[in-house]
Amino acid sequence: MKKVTSIIAIATSIAATDVADAQSVLNERQQNPYGLVYDGAITQNEKGKVNIHPVTYEVNGIEIAANVYTPADYDPSKKYPAIAVAHPNGGVKEQVAGLYAQHLAENGFIAITADAAYQGASGGQPRNVDKPENRVEDIHGMADYISQYKGVDPDRLGVLGICGGGGYTLKATQTDKRFKAVATLSMFNSGMVRRNGFMNSQYATIQERLKQASEARALEAAGGEVRYIGGGPAATDEQIAAMPFEMYREGAIYYERTHAHPNSGAYPNSGGAYTVSSLIDLMAWDATDQIELINQPLLMMAGSKADSYYMTDDAFNKAINAKNKELFLINGATHIETYWKPEYVSQAVKKLVSFYQTNL
User: Fold this and answer.
1) First and final CA of the chain: distance in angstroms?
2) 275, 271, 241, 242: which is closest to 256 by C-alpha?
3) pTM of the model
4) CATH superfamily membership of 32-359
5) Residue 324 reports pLDDT greater than 60
């Protein structure tokens, strides 16, 4: 079984040369004024550099918290291509989605990334509802907002979906033709996995879990407690080591340790938990259903060593009408490493910039 080292050892290996430096980096991230927890994040808006603009807007009556990144020397009287970035399941805009949004802004794009409704700093009760219809509507909502933003050319709008956000992006762009170019990174088909389990590991328990979801919804309707899957205290080293899949092991380290986002503001952050009742919708949903409706240029990226790659491969092969579709493998990367590891992030960003410049 894969050995998982302690938090200090992990932090040291990815962010610093010794324990003191590692802790200093983690402390600095926690104190970022915009809540950003990735390396190289903006700490203040400076003239002539990429700037970040926290904004709010409503989607179906729910307040959405978002960040807009503008390029260096941004001039609202000019016209810029824009990219909407959809975050992973259990993530928030200040993690990997923000990292990629910032890099896109560094390359001349206006970028927006928003917390999903019911998650992160966005509104909605109960917390951490994770229904596909909501997540897809979040992506339409980003298009609504950023298309009206000063300096944005609405005819040059692209989208990037990461992990679960990638699956929801494939669904949103089947019908939303405002998006002229579609890209995914480490795509995760939430419906497939919630239904069948990761790599079909829970196929035998589908009906049992649907019964649990139905009971959870009935309890909510009666005014009872909201039941959750996941959440609770951070996993120990031993618990992480016992996880059967690399994506989940590395994900626990990323979300709970090296890139953890502190709870702050009116709403707690996602933290990976989701309501049991959400399974009623999730298990009947699939990112690839009607995927042939995508006729825009399509770029799908994944780590060559990612155990989640099978989902990207499946969707890519089914997207038979996508224009100039391309599958780009990031050599040597696992799923979670595409979120933060500089040598893999730089490959993905370079490919994205070329793709958007060509198709927008």
Assistant:
1) 46
2) 271
3) 0.93
4) Alpha/Beta hydrolase fold, catalytic domain (3.40.50.1820)
5) yes
